Amino acid sequence: MRVLIADKHFLSRTGLEYIVQKHFEHADCFALSAEGFKILSRQIKLFLPDMVILDYISVNISPEEVQKLILKYPFTRFVLITEWLPKNELLKYFKSEVKWHLLKECDEQEIKECIEYAMSNQSFFCNKLIQYLQSNEENIEIMERNRMNCNGINITQREREIIQLIAEGMSNKQIADALNLSIHTVLTHRKNIMKKTNANNTAGLVLFAIKNHLLPPSNHYLFAENG
Q1: Is residue 138 part of a domain?
Q2: pLDDT digit string (tens) for 123-171?
Q3: Burial of 180 (0-12, 13-18, 19+ CB in 10 A)
């Protein structure tokens, strides 16, 4: 596994490299400290990493540029990691289709788990990030303006159950087995849920559920995009 670590700060860079090499002995790491979209994109093209661990703030990458990277290199896993941000700024990065996100306060085990789930293409949001997005301590006005009324869009109890199982990483077949439903019924529910919540993908659905308190407290949420 080839891993590019893009972080301007020496201690963060070397710490992440240590964790990757400690837990993934076959990982080939390359650290990048330079700033800017063009430099990062060029290094990805040269190094052809399977995964990029990116502190987008320290290397000055905007949400729009993160989206461009994800679209330009669809077979590369982009794990975002950063310090605390205002919620409205953090949410911009979620809209960029990011599937893996950590905060620098995360411990070694959670970083390891995130990398493992990225390797298996299951999304992962760390515990502190989930708690932060669920809290109402900052930018309440912005969050409320963006928040939908769950009662107004009539999320049923069955749909809530399916949303929670999606957030826990279950495939459509696993959800069907768990709820004793046919796969066709699960797919129908899922289609209706996506339409009701106006979510374009699974990450958007889970973000909606987090913002509207449809999910119980958890260490983290991870979810598969397919099947």
Answers
A1: no
A2: 787 777 776 766 654 443 443 444 433 344 667 888 888 988 888 778 8
A3: exposed
Q: What phi, psi does 126 have (nearest 5°)? A: -70, 160
> With contact defined as beta carbons under 8 Å apart, do 187 and 175 qualify?
no
Write the burial class of residue 155 (CB in 10 Å: 0-12 exposed, 13-18 middle, 19+ buried): buried
Q: What is the CATH number of the domain that holds 154?
A: 1.10.10.10
CATH number for the domain that contains residue 109 = 3.40.50.2300
CA proximity to 93, closest of 61, 117, 118: 61
Do 116 and 168 share a domain, yes or no? no
Q: Is residue 57 part of a domain?
A: yes
Which residues share a beta bridge with 52? 4, 78
Domain end call among 127, 162, 188: 127
**Is 108 in the same domain as 152?**
no
- Range of 99-113, 135-149, 211-225 with top mean pLDDT: 99-113
Q: What's the pTM?
A: 0.61
Domain range for 220: 145-224
pLDDT of residue 115 exceeding 80:
yes
pLDDT at 216: 67
Same-domain check for residues 119 and 158: no
Lowest mean per-residue pLDDT among 10-19, 32-41, 153-162: 153-162
Give the separation between CA 76 and CA 50, rounded to whole angstroms: 5
Backbone phi, psi, residue 159, to 5°: -65, -35
